[in-house]
What we know:
Blueprint: E1 3-9, H1 25-44, E2 49-56, E3 66-69, H2 75-86, E4 90-93, H3 102-115, E5 117-121, E6 128-133, H4 147-154, E7 159-160, H5 164-167, H6 173-182
Parallel strand pairs: 1-2, 1-4, 2-3, 5-7
Antiparallel strand pairs: 4-6, 5-6
Pfam families: CofC
GO molecular function, one term: GTP binding
Keywords: GTP-binding, Nucleotide-binding, Nucleotidyltransferase, Transferase
Amino acid sequence: MSWTAVVPLKTSGERKSRLAALLSAEERSALSVRMFHHVVDVLTQVPAIGRIIVLADECPADWDGDWMADGGRGLNPELEQARKLVAGDLIVLHADLPLLTPEDVTALIEAASESGLAIAPDRHRTGTNGLALKAATRLEFSFGADSFRLHRLQRSDCMVVERDGFALDLDTPDDLKALAAAR
């Protein structure tokens, strides 16, 4: 069984703008790059992952793997396009998960292998930080505000995978405080 991981990444423009009160633009950009590499490094350690695709408006300068150009239609339509191109089992992971481990990813894949769909919420249970779906599973991507609830409304039979590695994404000053407390 081989899964394809898609990692959406913002490569141009201002990154992590909600952290601007604490970090300069250069610091936010460097943080984004470090977290992206952490997520990709974790994915390379998961035997079930056969392919990693970065979904971005431009290919990251230090990335030599598969890249899919983000056409600017919004994350959900772009992920739908990626799903059509992959035509197989798919896992979507955000690139800002500093505590993610291979065991977290494996747990998400195993849950999806059982039920067809597994969702990993953020620590507030509002966002979706990881989503794994088998090729035959129907789901309209609903990333954005309240995505965890919106994904679950479509598929109440999905498995929910709550793990520390998925719980903390870095978007706000409170997230940075939570990361410092977790380490």
